[in-house]
Amino acid sequence: MSWLDRLKQGLKKTQENLVGKIAQTLRPGRRIDAELLNELEEIMVGGDIGIETTTALVSELKNKTAIRGLQEADQVMGLLREVVSERLKKAEGRFALRTDGQPTVFLILGVNGSGKTTTIAKMAQHFKELGYQKIVLAAGDTFRAAAIEQLGIWADRVGVQLVKTTAGGDPSAVAFDAVDRALKEQAQMVLIDTAGRLQTKFNLMEELKKINRVVEKRLGREIDERLLVLDGTTGQNAISQAKLFNEAVKITGIVITKLDGTAKGGVIIPIAATLKTPIKLVGVGEEAEDLKEFKSEEFVEALFATNGK
Ligand SMILES: Nc1nc2c(ncn2[C@@H]2O[C@H](COP(=O)(O)OP(=O)(O)OP(=O)(O)O)[C@@H](O)[C@H]2O)c(=O)[nH]1
Ligand SMILES: [Mg+2]
């Protein structure tokens, strides 16, 4: 199955919940009026676009229909696609990969269960296939023994190195050791896993700051990417998570997972429109092929597909 087909399949519920419902509202023969715009607004808020972004989108639709002299409801879909595309396009971002012989270092963050560890596994596989011969994974989620084991299984399966400690150990020390090894052995990449849960939120954020600090000290430069993994099924919650994490360490990119099987995927629009952080990867399933670079055009095509075509 091509990536576009996977994306379409993954986004099917979101597509139905959002674009499907909007299409029903935009019946041929209906005129564009205040009532129609209110209905659109309701569907968009219900589709996890959030009040702020919905208001902005609807007001832009209103202006554009006036400027272009559009009166027919069935002319609105093309316009909506246009204004959504613009926002998603601005949120596109590529990975910062090093080309100076130093290892590219990514710190992976996010609340528990968001998909951090599987994202690391998928990324390791992807970069291995791209020709990165030496990749080091750091089992920085020392909170649970199972988390260390899970990453270890992936490291064996993909054929990359793992640096770990025992459960309850110091995550910063693991991250430091992984980067230290990568520098000494001239590895091309280090992917650092972190815990998504600790006793209190304050502790988690302080720990993430410490990992970041310790790694950057060893590197003598900034970490290349601090990637926040957001679970697409949590809808609007993803936005508040992003703000929270961004206060602790500056997030350089967003990964949105689990867009399959949720009707809440519309959240990608406010993520793109309100957060100043590029979206770098989107995930629509548990297989390695289900996680890919975010390309707004493909995404819009899948989101606005009619009848899954
Ligand atoms: N359907 C679906 N499941 C996913 C996707 N990405 C991850 N998962 C699943 O989500 C679950 C949690 O993923 P993990 O990678 O363990 O999440 P985590 O953030 O490391 O979680 P903690 O280690 O508990 O903090 C696993 O069962 C994954 O297989 C996705 O894109 N789609
Ligand atoms: Mg994990």
Structural notes for this entry:
The chain is an alpha/beta fold and 309 residues long. 50% of the residues lie in helices and 12% in strands. The chain contains twelve helices and eight strands. It has helices at 3-10, 12-25, 34-46, 51-68, 76-90, 116-129, 145-158, 171-184, 201-219, 237-248, 268-274, 296-303; strands at 104-109, 135-138, 161-163, 189-192, 225-231, 253-257, 279-283, 291-293. An eight-stranded mixed sheet has the order 3-2-4-1-5-6-7-8, with helices on both faces. The longest helix is centred in the last third of the chain and has 19 residues, at 201-219. The radius of gyration is 21 Å and the shape is elongated. The model has no long low-confidence stretch (mean pLDDT 94). Magnesium ion binds at residues 116-117, 141, 147, 193.
In short:
The protein is 50% helix and 12% strand.
What descriptors fit this protein?
309 residues; single chain; binds magnesium ion; eight-stranded mixed beta sheet; binds guanosine-5'-triphosphate; 12 helices; alpha/beta
How would you summarize the topology of this molecule?
Blueprint: H1 3-10, H2 12-25, H3 34-46, H4 51-68, H5 76-90, E1 104-109, H6 116-129, E2 135-138, H7 145-158, E3 161-163, H8 171-184, E4 189-192, H9 201-219, E5 225-231, H10 237-248, E6 253-257, H11 268-274, E7 279-283, E8 291-293, H12 296-303
Parallel strand pairs: 1-4, 1-5, 2-3, 2-4, 5-6, 6-7
Antiparallel strand pairs: 7-8
Helix pairs in contact: 1-2, 1-12, 2-3, 3-4, 4-5, 5-11, 6-7, 8-9
Bound molecules: guanosine-5'-triphosphate and magnesium ion.
